[in-house]
Amino acid sequence: MNKDFRLAFDVLDKIFREGAYSNIILGEVIDKCDNRGLVTKIVYGVVENNVNIEYFLNKIVPSRPQKKVTTILKLGMYMLRYLNSVPDHAVVYEMVDLATYANKKSQAGFVNAVLKNCIGYDYVLPEDTKECLSVEHSVPMWVVNAYFKQYGAEVATNIIKTKAHTLEHIRPNTKYVSLDKLAKMLENEGVEYTPSGYGGFYVQNNAYIGDLFKLGDITFQSPSSMVVVKAAAVKDGDNILDICSAPGGKAVYMTELAKNLNITATDIHPHRVKQIREYAERMDVSCIDADVMDATVRVHDYFYKYDLVLADVPCSGLGVAGKKADIYLSKTMDGVNELAEIQYAILQNAIDYTKSGGVIIYSTCTMLREENYNIIGKTLKMRDDVQLEIMDIDMENKGFIQLLPDGKGLDGFFIARLRKC
After folding, report:
1. What domain range is 211 assigned to?
2. Are residues 196 and 242 both part of a single domain?
3. 291 and 278 within one domain
4. Together in a domain, 33 and 9
5. 289 — phi, psi (to 5°)?
6. pTM for the complete prediction?
7. The Cα angle at residue 398 between residues 392 and 400, in degrees rounded to 5
8. Is residue 299 domain-shared with residue 326, that is, in the same domain?
9. Is the N or the C terminus of the chain less surrounded, counting Cβ atoms within 10 Å?
10. Mean pLDDT for each 10-residue chunk of the chain (421 residues)?
């Protein structure tokens, strides 16, 4: 049995049966692989094409087998369709072996028959427009329906068809390295880069980029995340609360835009608070106090204390699903509605923690109104102590803005700026 195919199956099995995160579980086994690139391609390929694979698997096998066998079939179907480097007969042979490995020897003949049917199968897309988009671009139907309802056919289609930017976005630690200096450093090492227009560069990750990251000369931060911080317009001496802060990128970026800040950065999970501290230490930032806090629980000691509160709330993450395809595996509209209740509660606490005259920034990395416009609209309707305020960013806005994935680096983010009356 090919060891790499076995490891790919082990990873996918934990993703589909246990809800493991693909990047984490893959990272745990990657050093065991003979061909790391191949295993990475297979795992992410199956996850990214899951809706498509599910659709055609249901056509070929109307009665769904047990989960482990289904995962073997998904793995085999992906390899037969997209992995030209492995002969079809070898794929079928290896998947049959995997059935025995997965203690499903009795299903080996079934696996063999199904995958042989996949060879030469006519993968015809559905005729219905929305279902076709769902299958072709591997986006769940509930997401497609929501986008069509909220944005209309043209915009929704563009959102669904837009592919994620494949390069990494880096920015310099401007306390020590200017953007011009970073450009020269990259040029001297022969690293190709493209200015993003947001204070950083798009690059292909490599060992030199990794070294700069470890030294704290650069960090990885998306343009959309940087826009959130710029919308805050932080001022020298501000006392700031960054709720749901982990891994800490926005808090650290604030320290480069203003002086003498006092930042309290919180997260509900201790290991995530550790990430904030490690991020700040790597970037040589000493004014961030990281602590564990459940943002939905009211902390009376924080009332009317902060000049600025940043509430980058937990969300469905659909705005970055192009980069993190396993987001689609676990999210549902019911889950979105549950998140909306949490988001609303966090925003109310954020407002209460803000001084009169202070600023609240509300942000998500999603594109659903339930998590964005509706939260702000309900807040403005229920409270008379906040109002929207135009953000001083290079984008037209009315105090709020919905960023959509553009395939050039922007992710789907929502940002709103509120002024406490």
Report:
1. 168-220
2. no
3. yes
4. yes
5. -105, 110
6. 0.94
7. 80
8. yes
9. C
10. 93 94 91 93 96 96 89 97 92 95 91 95 96 98 98 98 92 97 98 97 96 97 97 98 97 98 98 98 98 97 97 97 91 97 98 98 98 98 98 97 94 98 94
